[in-house]
Amino acid sequence: MQKKVATGKIYLGGSFNREADHQRVGRAKEILAKNPTIAKVHFPFDYDFVDPEEKNPEIGGQRSMTWRVGTFQNDLNGINSATCGVFLYDMDILDDGCAFEIGFMRANHKPVVLVPFTEHPEKPKRMNLMIAQGVTAIIDGNTELEKLAEYDFNWTPYIPVTGYGIY
């Protein structure tokens, strides 16, 4: 058995629009902090870019070009400095940003652990082919979240997506 060393630098991606998202992120951070193979967790909302010229950005919805460029570049920097991505993936409200980040990580030959969540576990599970085949491992967010504490982020073993209808 190999010694576990804290070398993993995680990019923690996911939606952050609803209170449920905030709770998931908080819980995931707590669990990842227990993992002996992780040195750092980068969650992009912890490093929010602020445009000092932008007035009341929460009102009106249109963000400044400075904010858009700064936020995009900060997220790409976080992905580029990571050794692995962990994505809290909302299966009820799909997030194009997460899909882009997953694709960007894989295009850069970085492993991705997908952690799908749903508030409707009674419904049949369905996943897009590109997400299902694009990720390195899947850990069910509703039933297996604690496995993030033991997953080996030094080796990032493959765990295929199963149990989903793929479209």
Characteristic key phrases:
single chain; 167 residues; alpha/beta; Rossmann fold; five-stranded parallel beta sheet
Q: Explain this structure to me?
A:
This protein has helices at 19-33, 65-81, 96-107, 129-134; strands spanning 8-14, 38-42, 84-90, 112-117, 126-127, 137-138, 165-166. The protein is an alpha/beta fold. It has one domain (6-48, 63-160): Rossmann fold (3-Layer(aba) Sandwich), CATH 3.40.50. The strands form 2 sheets. Strands 2-1-3-4-6 form a 5-stranded parallel sheet, with helices on both faces. It is globular. Its EC number is 2.4.2.6. Keywords: Glycosyltransferase, Transferase. It is an enzyme of class 2 (transferase).
Q: Helical percent range? A: 25-40%
Shape: globular
Rounded radius of gyration (Å): 16 Å
With strands numbered from the N-terminus, the spatial order across the biggest sheet is 2-1-3-4-6
- Amount of beta strand: 15-25%
Question: Total number of β-strand segments?
Answer: 7
Map the helices and strands.
Blueprint: E1 8-14, H1 19-33, E2 38-42, H2 65-81, E3 84-90, H3 96-107, E4 112-117, E5 126-127, H4 129-134, E6 137-138, E7 165-166
Parallel strand pairs: 1-2, 1-3, 3-4, 4-6, 5-7
Summarize the structure.
Helix content is 30%, strand content 19%.
